Predict the 3D structure of the following.
Amino acid sequence: MFACLYLPRPASSAPDRGKTGARGIPHATHAAHATYATHEPYATLVQIARDFSPRVETHGDRTVTLDISGLGSLIGEPRSIGEELRRTAADAGLGVHVAVAASSTAAILLAHARAGLTVVARGDEASALAPLPLRVLTQLGFGLWTLDSRPDQNLEPKAQNLESTAQSPEQLTRWGLRTLGDLAALPSSELSARLGQTGLRWQRWARGEEVRPLVPAGVAESFEESLDLEWPIDGLEPLSFVLARLFEPLCDRLERGDRGAVVLRVTLTLVTSARSATVELHERVVELPAPMRDARVLRTLALLDLESNPPPAAIDRVAVAVDVTEGRVLQFGLFARALPTDTLATLLARLGALMGSDHVGAPSLVDTHRPGAFAMAKFDPPRTFTIPPSPLPNPQSRIPHHTSAAVLRRFRSPIPARVVLEQGRPVRVTTDRRGCAGGRVERSEGPWRSSGDWWLPSSIVDRPESIVDKRSTLPHATSPWNCDEWEVALNDGTTYRISHARDVDAWFVDGMVD
Amino acid sequence: MLASAKDPALSERSESKGREYLESLLRDRKLDHTLTRGSDPLHPGSDPTRWLVPTGIAELDARLDGGLPRGHLSEVIGPRSSGRLAILVSALAGATSRGEAVALIDPLDMFDPVSASATFQGGADFQRMLWIRGESSCSARVSLSSEYGTLQKSLDRAVKALNIVLQAGGFGLVALDLGEVAAQTVKRLPYTTWLRLQRVIEGSETACVLIGSEPIARSSGGVTVQLTPGQTARVVRARKMESDDHVRVPLSAAAC
């Protein structure tokens, strides 16, 4: 059995067509619940319904349906339940229409059409609806339309149906129909032939047939926990115990609600002097790479963040809150080894705290000829694995295409060197750097000439920087370069990559082949 | 005893059974991984090559019976320009081309993605490679007293990072590049460091590789690939030393 509570509009208000957005399309009932809940009488109406049953569905901003099955043993007959609902609403200052029927469709129609309390016995829905005028369908277009769609359906494709819903009763009136009973009595096949599935849907509404099960609306829950400490704590170790105590119930609630945290907010109220009028807060926000609800992971991430940004004073009160999203379902491949997302997030956070967040990531190439240019990308290995076809070489790409298997150890700051040339080729390389003394060149390959960024503004080119800075290979380097690169094998067995900066006529050791 | 003494075949059979039983006991208790070398200790009958990480260099893989063993600490050692990094990058690229995540801990920030990109082709993917960079050093093998503290700190952080990565799991291959860190500095680390790391990866699907100029550490089931200046390699194991057949490691045109 279902009960419907309808809060009629004041006489001066527009008829109940529901809240509509652009192009007359109504907002989703469930998605817009939070907005409606700010409407105070409506929030009271929903709260009254929730006091009676946990299975409550909202339609528009004035209609609430609730499942009253099982209330019989507690309150009594359906009429008693309806009277109790009406009395409770009246006590809250709401003059509502109440209808009780075996189908939610019939309950909604009756609640909108009749004031006071209407109770229909099971099986009498069609006869109870029969005398109602067809314009009820127009008035309830929004409510019935939402009944006919699933909450997760996209609303855009339904716009056409809504327009036809709003216009249909006029069309049916031209057929000579006056009441829902007239519509219910029409042969379904003939109605379908003329109006299609839409006509059949109207007829099912007119007959009071259930079009879909009741979909309970979720409760807008805030996921926050806080703890006032008896004694102030100083340091992260005692704080970790407090955080564990806060995160465990929070994650239990996330688990029950099938929600995952995407943003973690930690607010620490710090100890201030007695004379200080303001409360000093230490707030940290951690954006999580994926929805998660593991208390241990959340605590670790919060602690790692606080380790990097410790509070300046002892802590009086700890509050944690999370922004939530729907839980996720992951499907890993059978053959690919995958890192769980929360494990990966913790790993990256821990490594970031240890090495610096800009020193942890995945290497990526930059489309330039600049020696040693690279960029760091976020490490997020793909979840799926497919063997890609061998890419064809792109003649337009400026990323160097090496054919040898030589891998370089590159000095991020090239080492200044002295190079002796014979017939234009290096024959001796020496440096002042310990461990990189150099020696006689036994074999050499090169030169490979490259230059770039000379088209940049002169203010950048002529800035007073050292030679080493001009040859900087850091990814953010923007100065021009013009160099010849060589690979030289020395008599000590080491193979170096050296370069001649042509602009400044200086030699550098860029790295060594290994 | 009397029967076995009289019947040599029976004696040999019972000895064989006893050996099998002993090996299975050791395998179950994970007391000696050299007995399970090349196969999954959890699934002894499985394909042994699935429990290995190929280096991608055919000759070397043949000497390694398929590749570097998972769940063990191995090392690639040799002087500069002997091909240590080439072997490592080849193994990293091969693992990513099979869809595995890999990690490289680079304490001195010397890895060059541009030169490595030649190896990371085909199905290999930098996206699956976690690169942990330390503080860049101005020179190789820093040993000046003024810079020693910085280097030691970098090394300590790198070992901690390695520990964190191995504990997280999920990586097919994890490498720590100590090729340009002075051997004396590495030796200052407590030896228990490597034992602890060995315990972390034991039984896991991660192969851990240390790159160095001198022997650092190797677990019982791990291998040592020792490279020489002539770009040849020999493989050293716990049970035998294969020193005769050297493997040539491809390097640059200048080096060869």
